[in-house]
Protein backbone atom coordinates (compact mmCIF):
# COMPACT_ATOMS: atom_id res chain seq x y z
CA UNK A 1 0.00 0.00 0.00
CA UNK A 2 1.29 3.45 -0.81
CA UNK A 3 1.44 6.09 1.88
CA UNK A 4 -1.23 8.78 1.55
CA UNK A 5 0.27 12.01 0.24
CA UNK A 6 0.79 14.52 3.06
CA UNK A 7 -1.76 17.34 3.10
CA UNK A 8 -0.39 20.40 1.32
CA UNK A 9 0.71 23.11 3.75
CA UNK A 10 -1.68 26.07 3.86
CA UNK A 11 1.17 28.43 2.97
CA UNK A 12 3.19 29.07 -0.16
CA UNK A 13 6.12 30.97 1.23
CA UNK A 14 7.82 31.25 4.59
CA UNK A 15 10.12 34.23 5.08
CA UNK A 16 12.89 34.59 7.62
CA UNK A 17 12.16 38.00 9.17
CA UNK A 18 14.69 40.77 9.58
CA UNK A 19 16.12 40.44 13.10
CA UNK A 20 18.64 43.05 14.24
CA UNK A 21 21.64 41.37 15.83
CA UNK A 22 20.76 37.99 14.34
CA UNK A 23 19.95 37.51 10.65
CA UNK A 24 23.46 37.91 9.29
CA UNK A 25 24.96 35.57 6.71
CA UNK A 26 25.93 32.74 9.11
CA UNK A 27 22.46 32.83 10.70
CA UNK A 28 20.80 32.71 7.30
CA UNK A 29 23.10 29.90 6.16
CA UNK A 30 21.95 27.84 9.14
CA UNK A 31 18.34 28.50 8.11
CA UNK A 32 19.02 27.93 4.40
CA UNK A 33 20.48 24.51 5.26
CA UNK A 34 17.05 23.62 6.64
CA UNK A 35 15.15 24.81 3.59
CA UNK A 36 14.71 28.56 4.12
CA UNK A 37 14.46 30.21 0.71
CA UNK A 38 13.21 33.73 1.44
CA UNK A 39 15.23 35.71 3.96
CA UNK A 40 15.98 39.25 5.07
CA UNK A 41 19.07 40.88 6.47
CA UNK A 42 18.62 42.90 9.65
CA UNK A 43 17.54 46.51 9.25
CA UNK A 44 20.05 49.11 8.14
CA UNK A 45 19.63 52.70 9.17
CA UNK A 46 19.38 54.99 6.15
CA UNK A 47 21.53 57.67 7.81
CA UNK A 48 24.22 55.20 8.87
CA UNK A 49 24.27 53.80 5.35
CA UNK A 50 24.41 57.24 3.73
CA UNK A 51 27.31 58.18 6.02
CA UNK A 52 28.97 54.84 5.28
CA UNK A 53 29.12 53.42 8.78
CA UNK A 54 31.33 50.32 8.28
CA UNK A 55 29.10 48.31 10.63
CA UNK A 56 26.59 47.98 7.78
CA UNK A 57 28.97 45.90 5.68
CA UNK A 58 28.49 42.88 7.94
CA UNK A 59 24.72 43.33 7.89
CA UNK A 60 24.57 43.60 4.10
CA UNK A 61 27.01 40.79 3.29
CA UNK A 62 25.35 38.33 0.93
CA UNK A 63 26.39 34.74 0.31
CA UNK A 64 26.99 33.76 -3.30
CA UNK A 65 24.65 30.83 -2.87
CA UNK A 66 21.74 32.91 -1.60
CA UNK A 67 18.91 32.75 -4.10
CA UNK A 68 16.49 35.22 -2.52
CA UNK A 69 17.58 37.92 -0.12
CA UNK A 70 15.85 41.10 0.93
CA UNK A 71 17.32 43.91 2.96
CA UNK A 72 15.52 46.48 5.06
CA UNK A 73 15.88 50.24 5.43
CA UNK A 74 14.97 52.22 8.52
CA UNK A 75 14.57 55.97 8.39
CA UNK A 76 12.21 58.90 8.53
CA UNK A 77 13.98 61.44 6.33
CA UNK A 78 13.19 61.12 2.61
CA UNK A 79 16.50 62.72 1.64
CA UNK A 80 18.57 60.20 3.61
CA UNK A 81 16.36 57.39 2.37
CA UNK A 82 17.07 58.41 -1.22
CA UNK A 83 20.83 58.51 -0.55
CA UNK A 84 20.70 55.11 1.14
CA UNK A 85 18.57 53.65 -1.66
CA UNK A 86 21.16 54.76 -4.23
CA UNK A 87 23.83 52.87 -2.33
CA UNK A 88 21.61 49.78 -2.15
CA UNK A 89 21.08 50.08 -5.91
CA UNK A 90 24.71 49.04 -6.34
CA UNK A 91 24.07 45.77 -4.53
CA UNK A 92 22.06 42.74 -5.40
CA UNK A 93 18.83 42.23 -3.44
CA UNK A 94 15.52 40.73 -4.44
CA UNK A 95 13.65 43.44 -2.52
CA UNK A 96 14.31 46.42 -0.31
CA UNK A 97 11.88 46.48 2.59
CA UNK A 98 10.97 49.59 4.54
CA UNK A 99 10.65 49.38 8.31
CA UNK A 100 7.49 50.84 9.81
CA UNK A 101 7.37 48.74 12.96
CA UNK A 102 10.54 48.99 15.05
CA UNK A 103 9.49 49.73 18.68
CA UNK A 104 12.95 50.64 20.04
CA UNK A 105 12.79 54.01 21.80
CA UNK A 106 15.96 55.37 20.23
CA UNK A 107 14.29 54.75 16.84
CA UNK A 108 10.75 55.95 17.59
CA UNK A 109 12.04 59.11 19.31
CA UNK A 110 13.39 60.29 15.99
CA UNK A 111 10.12 59.48 14.24
CA UNK A 112 11.25 56.26 12.53
CA UNK A 113 10.05 52.65 12.76
CA UNK A 114 6.76 52.21 14.61
CA UNK A 115 6.44 55.99 15.14
CA UNK A 116 6.52 56.53 11.38
CA UNK A 117 3.85 53.84 10.98
CA UNK A 118 1.59 56.07 13.09
CA UNK A 119 2.33 59.13 10.92
CA UNK A 120 0.83 57.99 7.64
CA UNK A 121 1.43 61.09 5.61
CA UNK A 122 5.15 61.18 6.39
CA UNK A 123 5.47 57.40 6.06
CA UNK A 124 4.04 57.54 2.56
CA UNK A 125 6.39 60.35 1.57
CA UNK A 126 9.35 58.25 2.71
CA UNK A 127 8.11 55.16 0.89
CA UNK A 128 7.32 57.10 -2.29
CA UNK A 129 10.89 58.45 -2.25
CA UNK A 130 12.25 54.94 -1.82
CA UNK A 131 10.08 53.50 -4.59
CA UNK A 132 11.11 56.31 -6.94
CA UNK A 133 14.82 55.75 -6.27
CA UNK A 134 15.24 52.03 -5.79
CA UNK A 135 16.04 49.74 -8.69
CA UNK A 136 14.85 46.91 -6.45
CA UNK A 137 11.19 46.15 -5.80
CA UNK A 138 10.15 47.80 -2.53
CA UNK A 139 8.13 46.11 0.21
CA UNK A 140 7.05 47.35 3.64
CA UNK A 141 6.84 45.82 7.09
CA UNK A 142 4.26 47.34 9.38
CA UNK A 143 2.63 46.63 12.70
CA UNK A 144 -1.02 46.45 13.50
CA UNK A 145 -1.91 50.01 14.54
CA UNK A 146 -5.07 49.20 16.52
CA UNK A 147 -5.82 45.64 17.53
CA UNK A 148 -9.58 46.18 17.81
CA UNK A 149 -10.21 48.33 14.77
CA UNK A 150 -8.67 47.36 11.42
CA UNK A 151 -9.33 50.76 9.79
CA UNK A 152 -6.04 52.56 10.58
CA UNK A 153 -3.88 49.58 9.59
CA UNK A 154 -5.90 49.08 6.41
CA UNK A 155 -5.56 52.79 5.55
CA UNK A 156 -1.78 52.64 5.96
CA UNK A 157 -1.53 49.44 3.93
CA UNK A 158 -3.69 50.88 1.13
CA UNK A 159 -1.52 53.98 1.02
CA UNK A 160 1.62 51.84 0.82
CA UNK A 161 0.17 49.78 -2.02
CA UNK A 162 -0.75 52.98 -3.86
CA UNK A 163 2.86 54.15 -3.43
CA UNK A 164 3.99 51.03 -5.27
CA UNK A 165 5.10 48.56 -2.59
CA UNK A 166 4.94 45.00 -3.93
CA UNK A 167 4.14 43.20 -0.66
CA UNK A 168 3.35 44.14 2.92
CA UNK A 169 4.43 42.18 5.97
CA UNK A 170 2.14 42.77 8.93
CA UNK A 171 3.35 42.02 12.46
CA UNK A 172 0.10 41.46 14.31
CA UNK A 173 0.98 43.26 17.53
CA UNK A 174 0.62 46.93 18.37
CA UNK A 175 3.78 48.78 19.36
CA UNK A 176 2.86 48.86 23.06
CA UNK A 177 3.05 45.08 23.12
CA UNK A 178 6.58 45.10 21.66
CA UNK A 179 6.89 41.37 20.79
CA UNK A 180 4.59 39.84 23.43
CA UNK A 181 0.98 38.84 23.55
CA UNK A 182 -1.55 37.65 21.05
CA UNK A 183 -1.41 38.37 17.34
CA UNK A 184 -4.33 40.42 16.00
CA UNK A 185 -5.20 38.00 13.19
CA UNK A 186 -8.50 39.67 12.21
CA UNK A 187 -6.62 42.90 11.48
CA UNK A 188 -4.06 41.09 9.32
CA UNK A 189 -6.97 39.38 7.51
CA UNK A 190 -8.64 42.76 6.91
CA UNK A 191 -5.41 44.14 5.42
CA UNK A 192 -5.11 41.09 3.17
CA UNK A 193 -8.63 41.63 1.87
CA UNK A 194 -8.09 45.36 1.34
CA UNK A 195 -4.87 45.53 -0.67
CA UNK A 196 -3.99 44.26 -4.15
CA UNK A 197 -0.51 43.06 -3.13
CA UNK A 198 0.47 39.96 -1.14
CA UNK A 199 0.33 40.27 2.64
CA UNK A 200 2.85 38.40 4.76
CA UNK A 201 1.49 37.45 8.18
CA UNK A 202 3.98 37.71 11.03
CA UNK A 203 3.86 36.99 14.74
CA UNK A 204 4.21 34.06 17.09
CA UNK A 205 5.39 31.23 14.82
CA UNK A 206 7.49 28.97 17.05
CA UNK A 207 6.32 25.62 15.73
CA UNK A 208 4.32 24.20 12.84
CA UNK A 209 1.02 24.42 14.70
CA UNK A 210 1.51 28.18 15.16
CA UNK A 211 2.04 28.63 11.42
CA UNK A 212 -1.09 26.60 10.65
CA UNK A 213 -3.11 28.76 12.99
CA UNK A 214 -1.69 32.03 11.66
CA UNK A 215 -2.41 30.96 8.06
CA UNK A 216 -5.93 29.83 8.98
CA UNK A 217 -6.86 32.91 10.97
CA UNK A 218 -5.41 35.46 8.55
CA UNK A 219 -5.98 33.68 5.24
CA UNK A 220 -2.41 34.62 4.27
CA UNK A 221 -0.39 32.29 2.03
CA UNK A 222 2.87 34.05 2.88
CA UNK A 223 4.13 33.82 6.46
CA UNK A 224 7.15 35.24 8.29
CA UNK A 225 9.11 33.56 11.09
CA UNK A 226 11.19 35.71 13.43
CA UNK A 227 12.16 34.68 17.00
CA UNK A 228 11.11 31.12 16.23
CA UNK A 229 14.24 30.72 14.09
CA UNK A 230 16.67 31.95 16.77
CA UNK A 231 18.59 28.86 17.88
CA UNK A 232 16.14 26.80 15.85
CA UNK A 233 16.86 26.89 12.11
CA UNK A 234 15.09 23.50 12.04
CA UNK A 235 11.80 25.36 12.18
CA UNK A 236 12.11 25.68 8.39
CA UNK A 237 12.41 21.91 8.07
CA UNK A 238 9.40 21.44 10.35
CA UNK A 239 7.37 23.90 8.29
CA UNK A 240 8.30 22.09 5.07
CA UNK A 241 7.61 18.62 6.43
CA UNK A 242 5.39 17.76 9.39
CA UNK A 243 7.24 14.45 9.80
CA UNK A 244 10.69 16.07 9.97
CA UNK A 245 12.76 14.76 12.86
CA UNK A 246 13.87 16.93 15.74
CA UNK A 247 17.57 17.73 15.60
CA UNK A 248 19.76 15.45 17.72
CA UNK A 249 22.96 16.29 19.58
CA UNK A 250 25.26 15.76 16.58
CA UNK A 251 23.14 17.91 14.33
CA UNK A 252 22.79 20.67 16.90
CA UNK A 253 26.54 20.69 17.56
CA UNK A 254 27.37 20.75 13.85
CA UNK A 255 25.02 23.72 13.33
CA UNK A 256 26.47 25.62 16.30
CA UNK A 257 30.01 25.04 15.06
CA UNK A 258 29.29 26.17 11.52
CA UNK A 259 27.28 29.18 12.66
CA UNK A 260 29.92 30.45 15.09
CA UNK A 261 32.85 29.71 12.77
CA UNK A 262 31.01 31.65 10.07
CA UNK A 263 30.84 34.71 12.31
CA UNK A 264 34.61 34.96 12.78
CA UNK A 265 35.53 36.16 9.26
CA UNK A 266 32.56 38.54 9.35
CA UNK A 267 33.26 40.27 12.69
CA UNK A 268 36.78 39.30 13.71
CA UNK A 269 37.39 36.79 16.48
CA UNK A 270 36.62 38.91 19.56
CA UNK A 271 33.47 40.56 18.31
CA UNK A 272 32.29 37.31 16.77
CA UNK A 273 32.60 35.45 20.04
CA UNK A 274 30.88 38.23 21.93
CA UNK A 275 27.97 38.19 19.46
CA UNK A 276 27.99 34.40 19.39
CA UNK A 277 27.27 33.93 23.09
CA UNK A 278 23.55 34.61 22.73
CA UNK A 279 23.48 32.50 19.55
CA UNK A 280 25.08 29.47 21.23
CA UNK A 281 22.78 29.79 24.23
CA UNK A 282 19.78 29.94 21.94
CA UNK A 283 20.78 26.63 20.37
CA UNK A 284 21.30 24.97 23.75
CA UNK A 285 18.48 26.32 25.87
CA UNK A 286 15.42 24.11 26.33
CA UNK A 287 17.18 21.12 24.79
CA UNK A 288 18.40 19.43 27.95
CA UNK A 289 22.02 20.61 27.94
CA UNK A 290 23.53 20.86 31.43
CA UNK A 291 23.29 24.26 33.05
CA UNK A 292 27.01 24.39 33.89
CA UNK A 293 27.93 24.08 30.21
CA UNK A 294 25.50 26.83 29.33
CA UNK A 295 26.92 29.03 32.09
CA UNK A 296 30.34 28.84 30.46
CA UNK A 297 29.00 30.25 27.20
CA UNK A 298 28.53 33.68 28.75
CA UNK A 299 32.28 34.23 29.15
CA UNK A 300 33.55 32.92 25.80
CA UNK A 301 36.10 35.27 24.26
CA UNK A 302 38.25 33.30 21.82
CA UNK A 303 37.84 30.65 19.15
CA UNK A 304 40.02 28.26 21.18
CA UNK A 305 37.72 28.63 24.20
CA UNK A 306 34.72 28.07 21.97
CA UNK A 307 36.18 24.91 20.44
CA UNK A 308 37.05 23.56 23.88
CA UNK A 309 33.54 24.15 25.18
CA UNK A 310 32.01 22.87 21.93
CA UNK A 311 33.90 19.59 22.30
CA UNK A 312 32.55 19.16 25.81
CA UNK A 313 29.02 19.99 24.78
CA UNK A 314 29.26 17.46 21.99
CA UNK A 315 30.65 14.71 24.20
CA UNK A 316 28.32 15.33 27.10
CA UNK A 317 25.13 15.97 25.09
CA UNK A 318 21.73 16.57 26.63
CA UNK A 319 20.79 15.00 29.95
CA UNK A 320 19.40 11.46 29.52
CA UNK A 321 16.48 12.56 31.69
CA UNK A 322 15.53 15.34 29.30
CA UNK A 323 12.11 14.90 27.77
CA UNK A 324 12.31 16.18 24.18
CA UNK A 325 8.54 16.65 24.11
CA UNK A 326 9.26 19.77 26.11
CA UNK A 327 11.13 21.07 23.09
CA UNK A 328 8.67 23.68 22.01
CA UNK A 329 10.09 26.78 20.47
CA UNK A 330 8.08 29.21 22.56
CA UNK A 331 9.32 27.70 25.78
CA UNK A 332 12.85 27.66 24.48
CA UNK A 333 12.68 31.27 23.56
CA UNK A 334 11.06 32.38 26.81
CA UNK A 335 13.76 30.52 28.70
CA UNK A 336 16.26 32.73 26.88
CA UNK A 337 14.78 36.00 28.02
C1 LIG B 1 15.90 40.78 18.53
C2 LIG B 1 14.90 41.26 17.51
C3 LIG B 1 15.33 42.04 16.45
C4 LIG B 1 14.41 42.49 15.49
N1 LIG B 1 14.86 43.22 14.43
C5 LIG B 1 13.98 43.62 13.46
C6 LIG B 1 14.43 44.33 12.31
O1 LIG B 1 15.63 44.58 12.11
N2 LIG B 1 13.48 44.73 11.41
C7 LIG B 1 12.14 44.43 11.57
O2 LIG B 1 11.32 44.78 10.73
N3 LIG B 1 11.72 43.75 12.64
C8 LIG B 1 12.59 43.32 13.58
N4 LIG B 1 12.14 42.59 14.64
C9 LIG B 1 10.73 42.15 14.65
C10 LIG B 1 10.58 40.79 13.99
O3 LIG B 1 10.96 40.83 12.62
C11 LIG B 1 9.13 40.29 14.11
O4 LIG B 1 8.27 41.21 13.48
C12 LIG B 1 8.68 40.12 15.55
O5 LIG B 1 9.68 39.48 16.33
C13 LIG B 1 7.39 39.32 15.64
O6 LIG B 1 7.52 38.03 15.10
P1 LIG B 1 7.70 36.74 16.06
O7 LIG B 1 6.55 36.77 17.06
O8 LIG B 1 7.62 35.56 15.12
O9 LIG B 1 9.02 36.87 16.75
C14 LIG B 1 13.03 42.16 15.61
C15 LIG B 1 12.60 41.39 16.69
C16 LIG B 1 13.52 40.92 17.64
C17 LIG B 1 13.02 40.07 18.78
What would you note in describing this structure?
Helix 4 packs parallel to helix 7 and helix 12 runs antiparallel to helix 15. The model has no long low-confidence stretch (mean pLDDT 94). It is globular, with a radius of gyration of 20 Å. Helix 8 (151-163) links the parallel strand 5 and strand 6. The protein has an 8-stranded parallel barrel with strand order 1-2-3-4-5-6-7-8, surrounded by 6 helices. It contains 16 helices and 8 strands. By secondary structure, it is α/β, with parallel strands linked by helices. It folds into 2 domains: 13-240, TIM Barrel (Alpha-Beta Barrel); 249-336, no CATH class. Flavin mononucleotide is lined by residues 17-21, 42-43, 72, 99, 101-102, 141, 171, 179, 202-205, 225-228.
Bound ions, cofactors and other small molecules, one mention each: flavin mononucleotide
Order of secondary-structure elements: EHEHHEHEHHHEHEHEHEHHHHHH
State the low-pLDDT regions, or none. none
CATH topology type of the largest domain: TIM Barrel
Count the domains: 2
Number of discrete helical segments? 16
The counted number of beta strands is 8
CATH architecture of the largest domain: Alpha-Beta Barrel
- CATH C-level class of the largest domain: Alpha Beta
**If you compute it from the alpha carbons, what radius of gyration comes out, rounded to the nearest whole angstrom?**
20 Å
CATH superfamily of the largest domain: Aldolase class I
* Class from helix and strand fractions: alpha/beta
Largest sheet: 8 strands, parallel, barrel
Instruction: Tell me the strand percentage band.
Output: 5-15%
